[in-house]
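JOB MANIFEST
job_type = single_chain_structure
chain_count = 1
residues = 145
[input]
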Amino acid sequence: MAQQPVNLNTKDTFLLLRKIASYLAANGVGTLAADGADAAGTDIFMQVLPEAPITGTVIVSTGGIDLPSDPTRRPGFQVLHRNPNASLGLAKSVQINRLLAGQWNVLSGFPGRITAVSEPGSYFKDDAGNFQYFLNYVVTSTFQR
């Protein structure tokens, strides 16, 4: 059965982030609390990366592209991975990128392709000296307007 397009609004944007977080957790990137809350042992988050745990991943909505004359919608998101160890942080970022970049129809309810806008790389350290790796993506789909 073909997936039906969805109307992307604020609620759907949160749902998209949740689907991405669940997909990453199901593929061994980390642990996501069942209700999306910051439960003990959780290291995948949505919208805000808390101070603890030190090693963690957050998926953040970045808006995206919506051209009125184009039937496709392109919601954007960023994955930030924080790790005190540079090589482990880079390895996790590469794992995340391999799971997301160029993938088709891996997010249930959001048909389309995930395109990487950047390659994994450490751009700076946080105030505590932890390495932060930023990965940027766009989901191209035909969402209803």
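[summary]
DSSP finds two helices and six strands in the chain.
The mean pLDDT is 84.
exit_status = 0
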